[in-house]
Amino acid sequence: MSFEITSPSNERIKWLVRLRERKHRDAEGIFVVEGERLYRRAIEAGLSPRVTFVSDRGLRSVGETVTVAPDVLDKASYRSRSQCLIAVFEQSEHGLADLETGSDPLLLVAENVEKPGNLGAMCRTAAAAGVDAIVAVGDTVDRWNPNVLRSSTGSVFSLPVVVSSWDELDTWRRNRGIRVVAASPTGGKSIWDVSLTGPLAVVIGAEDEGVSELAESIADESVAIPQAGTTVDSLNASVAAGVVLFEVMRQRTSRRS
């Protein structure tokens, strides 16, 4: 089988290698998807690739497609294996003003969550729990990191992820009557004993520091996740988000029934 690109020194392969770094992705306003499963979910969400590189001619692709020798495409991968497909998409920019939250919104606020895998897992959990949007607070957030995309299993393509400051978010949510609840190991009442219905924004902080003092001061209430023992001082951020969000879902479902 002949391929259009057979050398790792090809300029388009060098371009893909550069796109492993956030500064190059952000400079061009693009992100990279690897593997057919994630690629299909991006397409199903209505996204159109700028270009798709494949090492298997049997893969169905959209738009411009370039065939690349398997070992060469693997060298361009963010990981060690490309899964036979690497595609480049345009970044979509959302702001708080773009969010359509409806009359009973549920938001997940991820504060200073640095690990891409955790942010991606939080996106996946949020989508399953019926969250309308994720608001990422903090300068370290890289929402287009390949590990965010992979850990989200594609939910990030259809669930809006907005980057905001606390000042902007606090003004926006007050204008819409959205209550803020911060999850903290030192929070007040247990999540089982607090009403989590109505327009709501749930704040989850980074594992090492938890929610910030600023977040605590802005929140209408702080809540704690009950734990059976004392050997663990905090939960993984994505696990904490799942516990709180599914309690929100349970309460909302009970209210409607």
Task: Looking at this protein, list some descriptive labels.
257 residues; Alpha/beta knot; seven-stranded parallel beta sheet; 2 domains; 9 helices; alpha/beta; 33% helix; 11 strands; 60s Ribosomal Protein L30, Chain: A; four-stranded mixed beta sheet
The portion of residues forming beta strands comes to 15-25%
CATH fold topology of the largest domain? Alpha/beta knot
Structural class: alpha/beta
Strand order of the largest sheet: 7-6-5-10-8-11-9
Could you name the CATH class of the largest domain? Alpha Beta
Low-confidence stretches: none
The overall pLDDT average reads 91
Helix content: 25-40%
Measured distance between first and last alpha carbons: 60 Å
Number of strands: 11
Radius of gyration: 20 Å
The helix tally amounts to: 9
Topology, element by element:
Elements: H1 11-18, H2 22-28, E1 30-34, H3 36-44, E2 49-54, E3 65-67, H4 70-75, E4 85-90, E5 106-111, H5 116-128, E6 133-137, H6 146-151, E7 161-164, H7 166-175, E8 179-183, E9 189-190, E10 200-204, H8 213-218, E11 221-224, H9 237-256
Parallel strand pairs: 2-3, 5-6, 5-10, 6-7, 8-10, 8-11, 9-11
Antiparallel strand pairs: 1-4, 2-4
Task: Explain how this protein is built.
39% of the residues are buried. The mean pLDDT is 91. It is elongated, with a radius of gyration of 20 Å. The chain is of the alpha/beta class and 257 residues long. Helix 5 packs parallel to helix 9 (237-256). It is built from nine helices and eleven strands. Helix content is 33%, strand content 20%. A seven-stranded parallel beta sheet has the order 7-6-5-10-8-11-9, with helices on both faces.
